[in-house]
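Interim report, section 4.2 (structural modelling).
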Amino acid sequence: MKKYLSVVLFVVLLLSMSGIAKAQTELSLWYHGAGNETERSILLGIIDDFNMAQSDYTVVLEEFPQESYNSSIVAAALAGDLPDIIDVDGPVMPGWAWSGYMQPLNLSEGALDDFLPGAIGEWHGEVYSVGLWDAAVSVYARRSVLEAHDIRIPTLDEPWSGDEFDAILEQLQASGDYEYALDLGMAWTGEWYPYAFSPFLQSFGGDMIDRSTYLTAEGMLNGEAGVAFGEWWQSLFERGLAPGTSQDGADRETGFIDGKYALQWNGNWAGINTLEAVGDDLLFLPAPDFGSGSTIGAASWQFGISSSSMNPEGANAFIEHAIQDEYLAAFSDGIGLIPATAGAAAMSEHYSEGGALEVYFGLSEAQALVRPVTPGYATVALVFEKALADIANGADVQDTLDAAVDEIDQDIEDNMGYGFGDM
Amino acid sequence: MRSMSFENQQRLLIGLRYALLILIAMIFIFPIVFMVVSSLKPDMQLLRDSGSLRAFLPVGDISLDNYADAFERVPMLQFFFNSVFTTVVSVAVALWLNSMAAFSFAFLQWRGKALVLSLIIATFIVPFEVIAIPLLMVVNNLPWLGSEGIEIGWLNSYHVQIIPFIADSLGIFLFYQYFRDLPDELVEAARIDGASIWQIYTRIIMPIAGPILATVAILKFLGMWNAYIWPLMTIRSEELRPIMVGLQYFFQLNTAWGEIMAYLSVVTIPVLLFYLALQRAFIESIATSGIKG
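Predicted structure of the assembly:
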């Protein structure tokens, strides 16, 4: 009898435990990294740790390919089928927040105190997303090449001035050792153009839009500074210093490594591969300063919470769990991007003191400027890309920038200011 | 100088014709050769070779590593099964339903037939992108008898990838055009012999519809095999994704070009085999009815 009683008690215990298990709320998480086994294993590790660390929520991962992730999110929003936690590309976040796809985060006070500015996604004064890493661009160069041509190696505190940079390009081109002095990556179309090239415009004193109001691009894109940038940009191609829009994609990948280009404007994600090919001779140099300071683009993929989530507390708890330094460092070691905090950088392989990519943390901290924080950025980016390609191909600078401003302003007007001002 | 003999002129003409045909064939074959050869090379070599004739030659560091890596990165067999399943079911059901619809237009008399046919043909001009979002809304609110009873919404399932694409205006039109050109005596004789409509469809018309069946099957197969936008919008789970969505898995920060070529080589094989199997009937259909795919 005692034996049966203990069996019954055991069964009751099991049933009650299963009841507890069922009481756990499932949190769906959509992520853009399908096909990247490293990211998947790190993220699954974070999820497992979270699921084991508490008993209220279970996070379930669904991965999507990066190239089509945004389309899947938009379709899910239309169908009212968004998950609890989403990841979002930094410049896209304002659009999704404005469209009502996302809700603000509610993290503990001080949770983001040490984060790089580019890893925090803010919209209308509230934090909507936070990234575990950031990305940065720099000038790739060979120390031996600079020394051979008696060219000063710039530092974060003392970058090349615009005139100095221009003279260096002329000097390297005139040496006859290279097909082109500078590879800007014109073969990489799409988001690369605004991300990588708008910092030059900002360094000239212009911008893609007037950030004080976000209601017009007039005067910023086509003003004096904008035109000065456009003329310099066009001259790069007219003088044959950089390959233009017809650049072969294969040359973009191998040209600098093969010695076809003396310098290259590239992101930190290509750093490890280039280091393996070039070795210790490789330098990552800060962006030149054309008069208004050196800037580089910022903001990569970040976590946020969908507006339809019925469990924002659990989603916030997961995000707060995921942004611990150890996970930031693990992602950085795995995929080579910049950890979002100094603490994580110190723990990481590439960005700790003496690490091969250490310089990028400083670049990101000192020079990063997020792309315009507006839902209209999607249009701004497309218009800016087309304008830069047209100017590179010889279009009149002032006319092209004026037309770009008209197009951006018309889009803002059509969308009643995207939530800025009274339009 | 002696003029060329007639035989020599003929030989020269044949030679020129072959040279032209070989040139045209090479234009079509070279991208496939490039794809297969590139799938055997490491990324850096692939990119370096792409600007020269070496791009078409299996030279340098050749291996099957890209295939192994592609299979590791993507659940290729699962994606392959999903595409084969949705494609085979869609093609089979579409051939049956669309041919029946066309049979009705071609041989049966019913009120409003011309108007309905015109409306179906008019939908040719509406691209899928236009109806994608309304279609998403519709399927998201349709009921389905699932394992847990009646559920609302078809998203994230096999049937959402199949059912919306069964009825196909182009397929109906092609069948209709083919049926219309068949001699009326065939159907009249069957009717006089007492055959039912169903018997005429199954025993008289369909047995001689081989060429058009092949044509519609190939067109439908290509459409379903290459499905991309719709699965992106409707499928959430990896285990239900078709093979074309899998291609996107390779576009990472550092794109794996060699693996992409390996994946594409594998993806292309079924298309080539399917076309080769139905090639004779497809060409016959074009030759006899002027149908162009």
